[in-house]
Amino acid sequence: MLLCIPNVLTKQQVAQCRAQLDAAEWVNGKVTAGQQAATAKNNLQLAQTSPLAQALGDFILDALANNSQLISAALPLKIYPPLFNRYAGGGNFGVHVDNSIRYVPGTIVRVRTDVSATLFLTEPEEYEGGELVIEDNFGAQEVKLAAGDMVLYPATSLHQVLPVTSGARIASFFWMQSMIRDDGQRTLLYDLDQSIQELTMELGVGHPQTVKLAGIYHNLVRRWADT
């Protein structure tokens, strides 16, 4: 499932992040790439262990915790601490698949990367190029969202970032280990949850149809959950 989620951060929150990121020191982005992906990666990143990266990462995690659409779509069990990248001057990231396991530095925590996420921190008109191209069931999808918006997609997807030919593209990116390992099952549960929300608005939370559908949802989660 490829899903765009609007307004994960408000414009004011984006501005707060950008004020700090625009003054930050950036390092070569290859430091967090796997052996194969590193050959295709040409960008800059905020050092993962820097106090700024950790503070902004916590800020984003707080926003994610209150986003019901993200929780419904990803059903996250673990979230890898958000990272930050910058593309400019022709920077790009060629076609690749994300590593299956990410190791949180300085801990014993391991995160299986079921869901990839990119949270855009620059407006589309601030840069040329830089589209995130994701291969899904409907072919190649180009994603270039407003600042504060986020895209979720299966980490198993082939994807790339096209060269940024002018301006700079700044984003946060991270991965989630879902309670539901299979993307098809996650998609079904998300669609079912959206139907429950619509029925709740139309008929009420206690209506028999709403209760029945909610029961089906929760029984499927119990059956499929991988915790």
TrEMBL record:
Cofactor note: Binds 1 Fe(2+) ion per subunit.
GO terms classed as biological process: DNA damage response; intracellular iron ion homeostasis
Binding positions for Fe cation per the UniProt entry: H96, D98, H159
SMART domains reported for this sequence: P4Hc (SM00702)
Protein name (Swiss-Prot/TrEMBL): PKHD-type hydroxylase
Domain Fe2OG dioxygenase: 78-178
GO terms assigned for molecular function: 2-oxoglutarate-dependent dioxygenase activity; iron ion binding; L-ascorbic acid binding
Residues that coordinate or bind 2-oxoglutarate: R169
NCBIfam families: PRK05467.1-2, PRK05467.1-3, PRK05467.1-4
SUPFAM superfamilies registered for this protein in UniProt: Clavaminate synthase-like (SSF51197)
Named cofactor requirement(s): Fe(2+); L-ascorbate
PROSITE patterns: FE2OG_OXY
InterPro entries named in the record: Oxoglu/Fe-dep_dioxygenase_dom, PKHD_C, PKHD_hydroxylase, Pro_4_hyd_alph, Pro_4_hyd_alph_FE2OG_OXY
Superkingdom per UniProt: Bacteria
Record keywords: Dioxygenase, Iron, Metal-binding, Oxidoreductase, Vitamin C
